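Lab channel / #folding
Pinned by the channel admin:
"Please post every new chain as: sequence first, then the structure tokens as a reply. Keep commentary short and put observations after the output so the thread stays searchable."

First post following the new format, from NK:
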Amino acid sequence: MVVGIGTDTVVIRRVGQMMERWGERFAQRVLGPAEFQEYQRRKSRGVAGADRAVRYVAKRFAAKEAIGKALGVGLHHPMSLHSVEILNDARGAPHAVARKALQGYLQERQYQIHVSISDEVEHAQALAIVQTTDR
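Reply from TO:
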């Protein structure tokens, strides 16, 4: 059964401005450890890599906002930017990996998160669906 649906859209240029202002501290604030490693890998690919890295951060930020909305808690306990990582499986599909208190929250309620992310020239968008796993 679907518990909640959340969506978020981020202006990629604004994320780029935040990263120009705050540098990698902004990326570290948004990304978990595995996400940050992927961000650094993308960033190391020259000018094109820098753009891909900004897009990566924007998509992860949108996904985490969408998950918070789908859970109905926003970015408040147990949800935070570091309590979930958006990783890609072997086929490239994104999936949410819960950490910390969010992991226990989801297990206790038998919730599962599904996430879809996309970007275009100016925007990154994410859709999250939370469903119960008991049926």
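NK: The chain has one domain: 2-132.
TO: also worth noting, Helices lie at 12-22, 24-30, 33-43, 46-71, 100-109.
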